[in-house]
Amino acid sequence: MHDPSGEPIRKRKRGEGGHGNGNGHHAHEEARLRQLLGALTAAQRGEFEVRLPFTRGSGLMAEIARTFNDVVARNQGLTTEIVRLERVVGREGRMAERATLGEVAGSWKTSIASINALIADLVQPTTEVARVLVAVAEGDLTQKMALEIEGQPVKGEFLRIGTTVNAMVDQLSSFAAEVTRVVKEVGTDGKLGGQAAVPEASGIWRDLTGNVNTLASNLTTQVRNIAEVTTAVARGDLSRKITVDARGEVLELKNTINTMVDQLNSFASEVTRVAREVGTEGKLGGQAEVKGVSGVWKDLTDNVNFMASNLTTQVRGIVKVVTAVANGDLSQKLVVEARGEIAALADTLNSMTKTLGIFAEQVTSVARTVGVEGKLGAQASVPGVAGTWKDLTDNVNLLANNLTSQVRNIAEV
C-alpha cells in the first residue's frame, strides 16, 4: 500500500518501535500526516480535486483535513469559474458574465473582484469597438470610441485600438463627405471636374478615393465631349465626332451619337444636293438618298423626296402648258394635284389659257366676219377679260368699228 504522498505504508509488527499503544497512535498520526503531505503535493501540482478523508471528529487532524478540503475546493471552484468564463465570455461572447464563488472574503473576494474587474476592463473596449462598428455599419459616422473609462484615460493596446478605430471613423467620414460632395457636384449640380480630397488616406481608402476621382474624371471628359458634339450639331456643324475613350453603355452612346451625326451629315448633304439641283440648277426629278436612316430621319427624307417629286410634276406640267401656248396650242390645261399657291397658279394658268382661247376665237371671228365675209359692225366679246387682254379686245373692236365706219362712208359716197 502507498499513502497519498506515494510513500509505501509499511506494516508494523506488534510491539515494534516503542511502547505498545502509544507507538500505534504515533504511527496512525504519521500516516495521516503523510496523507496530508501527499494531498498538499497534489494541490501544489494543481490537482485541486484531491481531498483528505479523515474529516470526522473534533481532533486537530480532522480540523486540518476539513480546512484543507475547503481550501482546495475553493481553488477548484475558482479554476472551474475561470474555465467557465473563458468559454462563455471568450468564446460565446456573453460579455455580461462574471465570476462568483459564493460568500467569500479576504483574498478570495479580492481575486474574484480582480477577475471581474479584468473582464470588465477587457469588455469595455470591445463593447466600445462593437458600438462604433455597429454605428459605422448603419451609416452613422458620428460615433467615436471613448478614450476614458470612468474618468481614467485608457492606455497601452486599448489606447492604440481606440485611436485606430477613431482614425478609421474619421477617414470614413472624410471619404463619405468627399464622395458625397463629388457625386452631388457631378451627378446632381452638373458641375463637372470635381475631385475628392481625403488627406492622409492610405491603402484601400486611397484606392477608393482614386477610383472615385477616376470615375468623376472619366465622366467629366465623356460628358464634355458629348456636349461639344451635340452643341456643334445644334449649331449646324456636322463635322464633329465623339473621340473620347469609352466602354459599355457610354461606348454605345458614343457610337449612337456618331452614327446620328453621320446620318445627319448624309441627310443634310442629300437635301442640299436635291435643293440645289431642283431649286437652283433646274434639274427636276432629283431624289435624296440617305442610307440606313429610320424613324424621323426616314420620314424627313421621304418628305423631301415627295416635295421634290411634286414640284417636278407641277413645274413640268406648267412648262408643258406654257410651251403649248407659246406654240399656239391653246387646248392644253394644267392638270396636277396641288394645293395652296401652286393650286392658285394652276387655276390662273388655266384661266389665262381659256381667256387666250376666247380672245383668239373672238379676234378670228371678227376678222373673218369683217375681212372675209364683209359683214361690217362685228365686235369681239371676251367676258371677264382685263388688263392687256381687255386693251387688245378694245383695240380690235375699235379697229373693226373704224373700218366699218370708213367702209360705210365710202359706200355712201
Tell me the span between the first and last alpha carbons: 199 Å
Strand order of the largest sheet: 1-2
Order of helices and strands: HHHEEHHHHHH
**Approximately what portion of the residues adopt beta-strand conformation?**
under 5%
Structural class: mainly alpha
Number of strands: 2
Structure, briefly:
Helix content is 67%, strand content 1%. The protein is mostly helical and 413 residues long.
Salient structural properties:
9 helices, mainly alpha, two-stranded antiparallel ribbon
Question: Helices and strands in order, then pairings?
Answer:
Elements: H1 21-44, H2 60-91, H3 106-137, E1 148-149, E2 152-153, H4 156-188, H5 203-234, H6 248-280, H7 295-326, H8 340-372, H9 387-412
Antiparallel strand pairs: 1-2
Helix pairs in contact: 1-2, 3-4, 4-5, 5-6, 6-7, 7-8, 8-9
